[in-house]
Amino acid sequence: MTGTGARRPPRHLHSRSLLAPSVAALFLWMVVPLGMTLWFSAKRFNLLNPGKTSFAGWENYRELLTHRALWVAMGNTLFLVGLVLAFTLTFGTLFSLLLDQDFPGRNVCRLLVIAPFFVMPTVSALIWKNMLMNPVFGLFAWITRSLGFGAIEFFSRAPLLSIVLIVGWEWTPFAVLILLPALQSLNPEQVEAARLDGAGPFALFRHIQLPHLLRPMAVVAMIEMIFFLSLFAEIYVTTNGGPGLASTNLAYLIFRDALLSFDVGRASAGGVIAIILANIVGLFLMRLVGRNLQEDLQ
Amino acid sequence: MKLPNPTWRTLTLLVGAALTVWALYEPQRRSELTVATVNNADMILMQQLSSEFEKQNGVKLNWVVLGENILRQRLTIDIATGSNTFDVITIGSYEAPLWGERGWLVPLDDLGADYDYDDIFDVLRQGLSYQGRMYAVPFYGESSFTYYRKDLFQKAGLEMPLQPSYFEIRQFAQKLNDPEHGVYGICLRGEPGWGQNMAYISTLVNTFGGRWVDLDWKPQLTSPAWMEAVSFYVDLLSKYGPPGVITDGANENRALFANGNCAMWVDATSAANYLLDPSQSRVAATTGFAKAPIANVPNGASWVWSWGLAIPTSSKRSPMAKQFLKWATGRHYITTVGERFGWLRIPPGSRRSTYEIPAYLAAAPFAPLVREAILSADYRKPSALPVPYVGIQYVGIPEFQALGTEVGQEISAALAGRATVPQALELAQADAESALEGRSK
Fold this sequence. Notes:
Structural class of chain A: mainly alpha
Largest sheet of chain A: 2 strands, antiparallel
Radius of gyration of chain B: 24 Å
Distance between the termini of chain B: 76 Å
Helix content of chain B: 40-55%
Helix content of chain A: over 70%
Number of domains of chain B: 2
Strand content of chain A: under 5%
Number of domains of chain A: 2
CATH architecture of the largest domain in chain A: Orthogonal Bundle
Largest interface: A-B, 35 and 36 residues
Shape of chain A: globular
Oligomer: heterodimer
C-alpha cells in the first residue's frame, strides 16, 4: 500500500461508493424498525380500539415504569442471563475438559453432548415439562418417589430455576462447541512443560488451561447473552410467566402487552426499554471481558 | 456496450412470465376460500369432510389450522389491520359481538330460511350477536359440568347427586383423595389465562355470589365473595388436587382424567366425547356426569361458550363464504358426521335438533345434561348481583383478555403458595383498576 499516495483519494472515494449500497441497506435494516418502534411507543395505539389512536408522548413509558411488572421482569431477565451463563460456562468447561481426554467411545460421547443444542427450544421445553419435571407422570417425580421422597413441583416451587435448568441444558453444548476446540488448540508442549514442573491437574487447569480459555469464554458469554436476554419459548411453553410474575422476563412481558392486550404503544415502549437494557448489559459485559483480555495480554 | 440488451431482454421475459402466471392464476383464485380454524378435533374433522363441499360448489379451500391462542393472535392482528387474508374465520362468543361492533364482520342473518335459525340454541345465537344481528354462526357449543368416576364413588360408598354443591364436592374430594395410588380428589384448571383458570374461577365466583365489577365498572376482586371463592379454590386444590396444578390447563386435566388420575373434574362439556372413547381414555366405562356444582347461588355456576364461523368484511368472496358457513354449521353436516364417523364425533351443542336424534342420545349419555346446561345458562345475567357486562366466564369487553390473564397469574401465585389469597386478590384488584381506568366514572 506504499507509493500510491497520489492515487489514494479517488481510490478511497471509489471504494466508499462501492461500499455505500450495502452500508445503506444495513442502516435501513436497523433504522426503519427502530424508528417505527420509537414512533409507536409515543402513541396511544390499541389494535382492539383502532378508533382511539392518538399521540401519547411519554405516557406509555410512565405507565410501564410505574408498574411493578416491569421491574420484576427486569430482575428476572438479569437473573436468567446471569445464572444460565454461569451454568453453561461451568458445565461447558467441565465437559470440554472431559472430552479432551482420550478414552474409548469419545466420539460418540462428543456427539451426545452436542445433541441437545439441535433440539428446538419449544420441543425441549415440552420434553422437560411433560416427561421429566411433571410431578405426576415425570421421570424426576418417579425417581424421587421411588427413593421415598415426594414429587418436586418444579414450576410452582422454583419456576426460574427450572427454566435455568432447561435453557442451561440446551446451551451447554454451545459452550462445549466453542471451548473444546479451544482446549485442543492449546500447545501440548506447554502442558508437558507444566507437568515436568510438577503441576497437578488442578494447578494445570488454573494456570494453563483456564487462562487459555478466557478469550473463547468471553465469546461464548457475548453470544449467549444476546440470546438469553430475549428468552421466550421456554417460558411460554412451561410457566407462561407465572406463577404470578415469578418467571416473566422482559421478552415475555412485551409479548403479553403486544399479543394479549394488543397494546401496540405499550409493547413498543417495552421494546425500547429492552433495547436500552440490552445495551447496558452488553456494555458492562464488554468492559469486563475487555479488561480481562487486556490483563491476559499483559 | 452490449450489456443492457440481454439484461433488458431477461427482465422483459421475467415480467412477461410473471404476468402470464398471474393471468392464469388469478381467475382460479376467485373460486378459492381461505379458512382459518382451531386445531380442535371437531374442526379437523370439518377439514377432512370439506372435499365434499369443494366438489359440490367447485371451489378450493385453503386451510390455516392453528392452536387456539395463536389463532386468536393471528386473527386479531389480521382483522384489526384490515388485511384480507381470510374469507372464513373461527372465533368464539367472546370475540363475535366485539368484532361485530367494530364493523369487522359481515352480518349473517341472510343464510336463508332452510338454514333454520330457530333451531340454534337461543343463548348461542344471542352470544354471537351484536344489537340483534348475528356476526358468527355456531359450529359447536359447550357448557361446563362435573365429571366423576363411578367406580371410585361406588367403592367409597358415595353417591354423586345430579346437582352437587361445592361443599359436597369438597367432602367427596377429601374421601377419594388417594395420592399413594395416583388418584387425586379433584382436578381443576390451574394454568393462568383468561380462557384457562379464569374461565373456571369466574363461574366459581359467580356461584359464591360475586361479580367482576359493579355497575360503575369498579372492580370487585377484594369483595367477600371473591375472597371466599378463591380461598375455597386454593384450599381444595392444594389439599386434594394433583401436584403441579398451576401448569394444568384444560388439555392437561383431560389427560389426567382420561388416565385415571382424577376422581372428579369440573370442566367443559365438550371433553365428554373424548372421555367416552375407549381408544383414548382408560375411564371410558366408568365416567359419570353431573351438573356443575353450585355454592351459594345458582347464577352463572356453569359457563356457556361456542366456537362460531364468521366472515371478515375485508373478504372479497363473502357469497361463497356464506355457502361454506351454511354447509358447515347446518343440520345436514351434523347427521353426515354422525353417520360416517360415529355419533360421538358430531359437533355438539349448537342445535336443538341434535338432541332429538335417537342415535346420538343413545351414544352420548351426557347429552341431556349438556342440553339442560346450555338451556339454563344466561350469559346476560352471570351473577346474582347486577353487572354492566355480558359473559359468564369472561367479561365481554376488549380489555378482558389482558386483564383476565393478569388476574389469572396472581391467583396462580396464590395457588403455588407464593402469596396468600388476600395478597393475590389485592394485586389483582390493582391490575383491574388500572385496566378499567377508562371505564369507571
